[in-house]
Design goal:
The structure is a single chain. This protein has 3 domains: 9-331 and 340-352, Dihydroxyacetone kinase, domain 1 (Rossmann fold); 396-608, Serine Threonine Protein Phosphatase 5, Tetratricopeptide repeat; 614-815 and 912-927, Alpha-Beta Barrel (TIM Barrel). 43% of the residues lie in helices and 13% in strands. Helix 12 (433-449) packs across helix 13 (458-472) and helix 13 packs antiparallel against helix 14. The strands form 5 sheets. It has an 8-stranded parallel β-barrel with strand order 15-16-17-18-19-20-21-22, surrounded by 7 helices. It has a 6-stranded mixed beta sheet with strand order 1-2-4-3-5-6, with helices on both faces. It has a 6-stranded mixed beta sheet with strand order 9-8-7-12-10-11, sandwiched between helices. By secondary structure, it is of the alpha/beta class.
Length: 939
């Protein structure tokens, strides 16, 4: 039925709680929590709660001898941890408090988060305990292995008996022990004739046919274990239910240790799920009594009525509490002692103990009085205990702007993805995931817009974000995110201390995330693969923590793959675990929570992750940085080092001396790396050209996937051959018009070499800045920039000009893996951008080389009247003399290529250090550049 008596759906919970204070003036309402107005100071207090819609649970059980506080969320939505903390603040915790919650993920997370925060911020961190009740026997062990048994009406029995003991002044250990005994020995199963209707939602088509019933329904409209038609008689339903609860042979559902030997003793609860007529509830009670008598199970106490409902769901549940035959001792791990005998007599006495909770026994006979507290009424709410210890300053981010920008990018991605995530959750969940994530993300973005998130302390930032998430999101995902963020806050402190660092670098973040995941695992049984948000989150964290220095890109990839993989998984945790798994598989949609995590990470990746371009995607490399082919320098060790560092190393083919020499070099590279690399073939005018076809054949035979080519028309047949064999071809050009010609041949990428380039930059004398801008206008094929690029600024500039990456040479010569003599590397460090010159200008074959004695002599000969012919220069510029420079370390032994990048070389790093530095600096520049763009009018 879709009809309700209320004011508005939004105010339904607070209106109902206010009505309870009128009926029971011993209570008061604060922040959707019903509390005892004057809680005793000499006893343990019980706190329960959960989503609304289960009335009278839990608010109507607040009273002397039962609950001291009941915290309510909106209908079927868990309250947030802040509400729970306020309830704890209001209570006197001299003897401690026991939180009792139903085993639904959102409740466990939110109440657990409150408990953890309480323990972390109060002097007595053992003053709050928590017992989770899971008494459902309908869901088989195999289906609920991670999720566990749902918490149903047995929850009420748990806090009735525990509350009675607390009222007698028992210790927190004794009260907790009784609660655990009851929770562990309860079994409940229910049924429904139709789903309930949630106020404020449209009335849909009937879920069940007129002659259908559903067995094993939950209390949130979760589907049961099966539908039956026609509807069985009350006797048959009771027989099935009690047989299931008392079974000793059903491996999937024998949760309660019955012996069925004629000596079992129980407490029976017959519970109306909300819409069953009292006439029919009486029939169920009668049938239950008859069945138990026939089975010689002694009913020590029985109660029937509405205890744990599901709004107006027409149905009932049966609960049996199996009383222990022998006293149940306190756990061996407990240091507490007790004079109590925890046996069946004690439990029965506690059941009989009086309580003035209205839903259990309406005993109050005073004049009604409405008591509703307002936010900020400190006299009524009570003051929080002082926090233990002083506030601790957390580590600062490595880059404040980058930190906030990455956070914003991830959150904006979540907001934009709401429709997609909602669609996934509508198919395989309860449909609220997208809006819940959007609410949390938008809440954080709003605070960021007001500069409300600290950018100089990552711990303070995570604490602030956690508070926003808790307030704005609620529910299961909100609880998971809030607990995870709280765990991350502490993890960052611990990791920074462990690493002796006041900065949150990759090592600190990786360790902190690992610690946060462990904290999260305390509150969810989900472990990958589980078709939950844990899948991508765990994949990301474990991959990143395994290799913090260079594992970030792999971590993002692992998270994406894990999120995608949920399309093919059965749900093992969360409410989706109770949904028809076959329908989920047919829909082939990912888990909404998992997709939300990936969406957040994907947004962050675009800011802090490796710079992703068409080049990195096509080549399968981590960083858009290519080590171009260099005569004598592009040898296996350097090539492998560049590829291992995430770039593209290129083996200079002709340096090998012969096709078979190239084959040997390729195999040597393969022995040093399993990452992508390429082979360069440069086609130069020659009377006796090298056997290019044979070189190309070796490249194909050795299954190299990428080739770099350079040269004029002679390169065309080889390019076509390589393309026909499936290779990706990068072709180097010194002019846009040459690049346009190469486009027609079908190359995959173009390398645009500007005038700053080492080696042969062409004769147009056009600098890279203009050349790249022209390429962006005129080329359709993706291109990379080359010439004068040696740091992150050059990489950022190239990307800003439309390039998909950069092609570098000189900067790789001055790395630890470059074979050239250390004297030459030192000379490069000491040189400046002015220490290069062009030779062969007069011969129209310009080459930029290091300015040494030989180069200066060549230039002088070219500038003399009448010029010079190449034969006169040949002895000076021979390749053998150039190689001697690299081999022996004499900078003046011959001519050797170098670009003006010399002015940017300050050290001799490893290839890994160089590439990481370039990428990090480029990311920072690109982010800062983006933040400088203001859309507001300056007028």
């Amino acid at each position: 039925m879709g009809k309700h008596i209320l004011n508005t759906p939004k105010t339904a919970i607070i209106d109902s709680l206010s009505g309870l204070t009128f009926l029971n003036p011993a209570t008061e309402v604060y922040d959707s929590t019903l509390l005892l107005r004057s809680p005793a100071k000499d006893r343990v207090h019980l706190v329960c709660g959960g989503g609304g819609g289960h009335e009278p649970a839990h608010a109507a059980f607040v009273g002397e001898g039962m609950l001291s506080a009941a915290v309510s969320g909106q209908v079927f939505a868990s309250p947030n941890a802040g509400q729970v903390e306020k309830a704890l603040d209001k209570l006197s915790l001299a003897k401690g408090s026991l939180i009792i919650v139903k085993n639904y993920t959102g409740d466990v997370l939110q109440f657990g988060l409150a408990k953890e925060r309480w323990s972390a911020t109060h002097l007595n961190d053992n003053s709050v305990r928590m017992v989770v009740v899971g008494d459902d026997v309908a869901v088989p062990r195999s289906q609920g292995a991670l999720t566990g048994r749902r918490g149903l009406a047995g929850t009420v029995l748990t806090y009735k008996l525990a509350g009675a003991l607390a009222a007698q002044g028992a210790s927190i250990d004794e009260v907790e022990h009784v609660a655990k005994i009851v929770a562990e020995r309860c079994g409940t199963i229910g049924m429904g004739l139709e789903h309930c209707h949630v106020p404020g939602t449209e009335k849909g088509e009937a879920y069940l046919k007129d002659d259908e019933a559903e067995i094993g329904m939950g209390i949130h409209n979760e589907p049961g274990i099966r539908k039956v038609s026609p509807i069985p008689s009350a006797a048959k339903l009771v027989d099935e239910f009690l047989t299931t609860i008392t079974s000793t042979t059903d491996d999937e559902r024998s949760y309660v240790p019955f012996k069925n030997d004629g000596q079992d003793e129980v407490i029976l609860m017959v519970n109306n799920l909300g819409g069953l007529p009292e006439l029919e509830l009486g029939i169920v009670a009668k049938e239950a009594a008859d069945w138990l008598a026939r089975k010689k199970i002694t009913v020590k106490r029985a109660v029937a009525g509405s205890f744990m409902t599901s709004l107006n769901l027409p149905g009932f549940s049966l609960t049996l509490l199996l009383l222990p035959r022998e006293p149940v001792a306190l756990p061996a791990t407990s240091s507490a002692t007790s004079a109590l005998k925890f046996d069946s007599s004690l439990l029965v006495d506690l059941f009989d103990a009086p309580t003035d909770a209205p839903a259990w026994k309406w005993t109050f006979k005073g004049e009604p009085e409405m008591k509703v507290l307002k936010e900020g009424d400190e006299n009524k709410v009570g003051k929080k205990q002082e926090k233990a210890g002083e506030e601790v300053k957390g580590p600062k981010p490595t880059d404040s702007k980058l930190f906030i920008s990455a956070l914003e990018a991830g959150l904006k991605a979540l907001v934009a993805a709401e429709p997609e995530i909602t669609r996934y959750d509508t198919i395989a969940g309860d449909g609220d995931a997208g809006l819940t994530l959007k609410a949390g993300a938008q809440g954080i973005l709003d605070v960021i817009a007001q500069n409300g998130i600290p950018d100089d302390d990552v711990v303070a930032a995570m604490v602030a974000i956690s508070a926003i998430v808790e307030k704005e999101m609620g529910g299961t995902s909100g609880g998971l995110y809030a607990i995870g963020l709280s765990g991350l806050s502490k993890g960052l402190l611990d990791a920074a201390k462990e690493k002796s660092s006041d900065t949150a670098g990759k090592e600190v973040w990786a360790r902190a995330l690992e610690l946060a995941l462990n904290t999260l695992y305390n509150y969810t049984r989900a472990r990958p693969p589980s078709r939950t948000l844990v899948d991508p989150l765990s994949s990301f964290i474990l991959t990143f923590s395994a290799s913090p220095s260079d594992g970030l890109t792999h971590a993002f990839k692992a998270a994406h793959e894990a999120a995608e993989a949920t399309r093919d998984l059965d749900a093992k945790a969360g409410r989706a675990a109770y949904v028809d798994q076959e329908k989920i598989r047919e829909a082939a949609v990912p888990d909404a929570g998992a997709w939300g995590v990936w969406t957040l990470l994907q947004g962050i990746q675009k800011i802090i992750g490796a710079i992703e371009t068409k080049l990195t995607q096509a080549l399968g490399i981590k960083r858009p940085i290519v080590q171009g082919g260099m005569m004598w320098v592009g040898l296996p060790k350097l090539v492998a080092a560049v590829s291992n560092a995430g770039g593209l190393g290129i083996l200079t083919g002709l340096t090998a001396g012969s096709p078979e020499g190239l084959r040997k070099s390729i195999r040597e590279v393969r022995s040093l790396t399993d990452k992508p690399f390429a082979v360069n073939l440069t086609f130069l005018p020659s009377i006796s050209p090298p056997p290019y076809e044979e070189y190309a054949k070796v490249i194909v035979e050795e299954k190299v996937k990428i080739a770099e080519t350079a040269g004029g028309p002679a390169a065309i047949p080889i390019i076509k051959y390589l393309k026909s064999k499936g290779l990706i071809v990068i072709h180097k050009c010194t002019a846009v018009r040459h690049a346009q010609a190469a486009e027609k041949v079908g190359v995959d990428f173009l390398s645009i070499d500007g005038f700053e380039c080492a080696g042969h930059p062409g004769e147009d004398d056009v600098g890279g800045l203009l050349l790249l801008a022209l390429a962006a206008r005129k080329l359709k094929t993706p291109y990379i920039a080359s010439g004068g690029i040696g740091d992150g600024r050059g990489l950022a500039a190239a990307i800003s000009l439309g390039a998909e990456g950069v092609n570098c040479g000189t900067v790789f010569m001055a790395t630890t893996e470059s074979y050239i003599h250390d004297n030459i590397k030192k000379a490069m460090v000491e040189a400046s951008e002015l220490d290069t010159t062009h030779i062969f200008r007069s011969l129209r074959n310009s080459a930029r080389v290091f300015k040494n004695k030989i180069a200066t002599e060549v230039v002088a000969k070219e500038r003399r009247p009448g010029g010079v012919e190449f034969p006169e220069l040949a002895p000076l510029v021979s390749g053998a003399r150039g190689k001697k420079v690299y081999d022996e370390g004499d900078p003046d032994a011959g001519v050797w290529s170098s670009s003006g990048v010399l002015g940017l070389i300050d050290d001799i790093p490893s290839c890994a250090e160089l590439l990481e530095r370039m990428e990090r600096d480029a990311e920072k520049i690109l982010v800062e550049g983006a933040t400088k763009v203001k859309r507001e009018s300056k007028l």
